[in-house]
Specification:
There is one protein chain. The protein is an alpha+beta fold. It is built from 14 helices and 29 strands. It has a seven-stranded mixed β-sheet, covered by helices on one side. A hairpin with a 3-residue loop joins strand 22 and strand 23. Helix 6 crosses helix 7. The radius of gyration is 26 Å and the shape is globular.
Length: about 675
């Protein structure tokens, strides 16, 4: 069973708001000859100039169900700016979205910015509502503060049509990830998928929506958001460039995009078990002669005569990786200079990759493996095996008689750790057709705490350092999201479980990744040798994989029976029959309707408790939507969670399940445990 989210009717499980207040900010390229203009020129379209976008996302609502799509507008913003080369991308999310602010941006700001040879894209992610039936029905977009049935508090499609009249762009495209009727415009008079190249750059105004007004579109955790936006980004990156009258020409036209969306959304909703139809729609707003289109950058390589151009933010990370691998990319500036391109070509040649000089998917996939090869032990070369030495004397090793595993506690306030031997593993999504591929890594031996950090352990830290349980640094009121009636998360609990009534042997929750790091820094003040840290995503997934097999065998269940509902209670504290949630698994009862005391479930073969279920756990990795991207542990905006929690359904018992959450987020189903290098 997969966990899916539906809207216009949806529920929230992990919590969907990326930021408490939302975003209202723009990414703007400073150069006068724009990246988009250069890309369009390389593709043969000399008359089109700058490209602008307004990206809007609302995932938290007061009266409507919250949506798990908080990352979708951020992904769209990043694609448009970092990959498609848009010159000006303004993002507006959650609390920052109001009719007044939208009108100000459209009627004032973009009216003045967008010229007659420019292009403008408008993206919306959120609920959709329909008023009336039949041809006279009208579509509305609820805001966070909108009230059910009060359509005057929502943005209407008539509003958008009115604002559009102020945008004097050559081409305009509205992408609406919501479902409603009453679309502005009419059905296109021609087959946009077969428009000729000569016609493509003509004036156009189109709307594409995720579905009809009588349909529900869905989001799936494994995709990190909605199926529509997932398919949209995949199509824009090249999958929608179909063989047609244009051929496979490195251009994705709005007609090709709509055709691909219909096929890919159907494939995804079938794959994830959603039986009802989802039918993306397209409308022509002005009797268009042309069609908005997206050149695929890799299909139109840079002419060295163009000089260096602004490039995506990951460029600096790739430059650093090339330097670490012994190539000379020049200064690490985040700009793809000629020297950086030469280093890329040299790396690609050594890796037997196409020598494009561009940071394409094949290159990004190859870099982590090349870096890993630098540190892998080689037999007979005098390097020390990372797992060869036992714990140092100051670590006071002891043997657990039951599990025969090495346990250490390097200081009086240090949580107990147990040694895990590591191993080679493929981690990440398991489906062969999953768009986010798994990767293979070698996990060296490490120590990990036998339980999640407890309320009692954190209290010692708080009392000694003066960290206020009411989070005096930011607010005197509730700062933690907790469950309320209607399966909704609201900011209603105090930080660090204060006033929760839980005893000291319960795992600490309502703790952000930043809070966890403060506790780790305090513990490390008394630690000699390797310091405590958050475990890596690979370390946790290795343990979850072993734990799954161990727990199912211990319970006498078939290790292949991942669809068996009763496996939930065998593995850990998940959403069982005693849970209050609408998605609970009624086939078994683990006797814990909420979070359970640490160690309530039997340990795995290493002696580690509660790896799966009870609380989601912060890991040390910053969030990566694709595991082939460079790994970072510092400077995260979004952290990574593993393991599932007491409120989760069957789907989140799988070891590969992962979630992105802002590092400042406190939630009643999120905690952490500690790890430490062996040497």
């Amino acid at each position: 069973m997969q966990r899916m989210w539906r809207w216009c009717l949806a529920f929230s499980l992990l919590g969907s708001g990326a930021f408490a207040l939302g975003l209202d900010e723009a990414k703007i390229r400073p150069d006068t000859t724009t990246a988009t203009e250069r890309l369009l020129a390389r593709a043969g379209f000399l008359d089109l100039k700058k490209s602008y976008a307004l990206v809007i996302g609302i995932s938290e609502f007061n009266e409507f169900n919250d949506l798990p799509t908080s990352q979708d507008p951020i992904r769209v913003r990043d694609y448009l700016y970092d990959e498609a080369g848009f010159d000006h991308v303004h993002i507006l999310t959650d609390d920052m979205v109001s009719k007044e602010r939208l009108e100000e941006l459209m009627v004032d700001d973009f009216r003045e910015l967008v010229g007659e040879n420019d292009r403008f894209l408008f993206y919306w992610s959120g609920h959709g509502e329909t008023l009336g039936d039949g041809p006279g029905s009208r579509g509305f977009l609820p805001l966070k503060e909108s009230r059910k049935g009060r359509f005057s508090s929502m943005v209407s499609m008539d509003d958008i049509g009115d604002w559009d009249s102020y945008i004097d762009a050559h081409q305009v495209l509205y992408l609406m990830d919501s479902c409603f009727s009453g679309l502005v415009g009419a059905a296109p008079q021609s087959d946009l998928a077969d428009i000729t190249r000569a016609q493509l750059s003509g004036p156009s105004r189109h709307v594409i929506t995720a579905g009809r007004g009588d349909e529900q579109t869905i989001a799936v955790d494994q995709l990190g958001g909605s199926v529509f936006t997932h398919a949209l980004l995949k199509g824009l990156r090249g999958a929608a460039d179909a063989e047609n009258a244009l051929g496979k020409d490195g251009l994705v036209s709005v007609g090709e995009l709509k055709g691909y969306l219909g096929q890919e959304v159907t494939r995804l909703r079938t794959r994830f078990g959603w039986q009802s139809a989802i039918t993306p729609q397209i409308r022509d707003m002005s009797g268009s002669d042309g069609a908005f289109f997206f050149p695929i950058p890799a299909a139109f390589p840079i002419d060295p005569g163009d000089g260096p151009i602004p490039t995506p933010e990951p460029i600096a990370e790739v430059q650093q990786a090339l330097s670490d691998l012994g190539y000379d990319p020049g200064p690490i500036t985040g700009t793809l200079s000629f020297k950086s391109r030469a280093a890329l070509i040299a790396f690609q040649r050594d890796q037997a990759l196409p020598e494009t000089g561009l940071i394409d998917d094949a290159t990004l996939n190859a870099i982590p493996f090349a870096l890993a090869a630098l540190v892998q032990p080689q037999g007979g070369d005098g390097r020390k095996d990372p797992g060869a030495d036992g714990p140092k004397e100051d670590q006071s090793p002891a043997k657990d008689d039951a599990a025969q595993n090495i346990r250490i506690s390097p200081c009086a306030t240090c949580p107990e750790l147990v040694r895990v031997e590591g191993g080679r593993m493929a981690y990440g999504p398991r489906h062969v057709d999953d768009p986010i591929p798994s990767i293979t890594v070698d996990v060296t031996p490490f120590f990990i705490s036998t339980t999640e950090v407890t309320i009692g352990q954190f209290k010692t830290y708080a009392e000694e350092t003066g960290v206020a349980f009411v989070d005096a640094k930011t607010s005197d009121g509730p700062t933690c999201f907790a469950w309320e009636d209607g399966d909704k998360l609201r900011k209603s609990m105090m930080a660090f479980n204060e006033e929760s009534g839980f005893p000291d042997d319960y795992p600490l929750s309502c703790v952000s990744r930043q809070d966890a790091q403060g506790y780790i820094d305090w513990v490390n003040e008394d630690v000699q040798g390797p310091k405590y840290r958050l475990p890596s995503e690979a370390e946790i997934e290795l343990l979850l994989e072993d734990n799954l097999v161990h727990r199912l065998k211990d319970a006498g269940l078939n290790t292949q029976s991942l669809s068996d509902a009763d496996m939930v209670c065998a593995i850990g504290n998940f959403g069982d029959a005693s849970s209050p949630f609408s998605w609970r698994n009624t086939a078994c009862n683990d006797r814990h309707s909420d979070v359970a005391p640490v160690g309530s479930f039997p340990p795995d073969a290493n002696g580690v408790h509660d790896l799966a279920g009870n609380l989601w756990e912060w890991v040390g990795d910053c969030w990566r939507s694709n595991l082939s991207l460079p790994l970072h542990t510092d400077g995260c905006k979004n952290g990574t969670l593993k393991g599932g929690s007491f409120d989760d359904p069957i789907k989140n018992t799988t070891p590969e399940t992962r979630q992105p959450v802002p590092v400042s987020r406190r939630q009643t189903n999120i905690g952490f445990r500690l790890a430490r290098d062996v040497e």
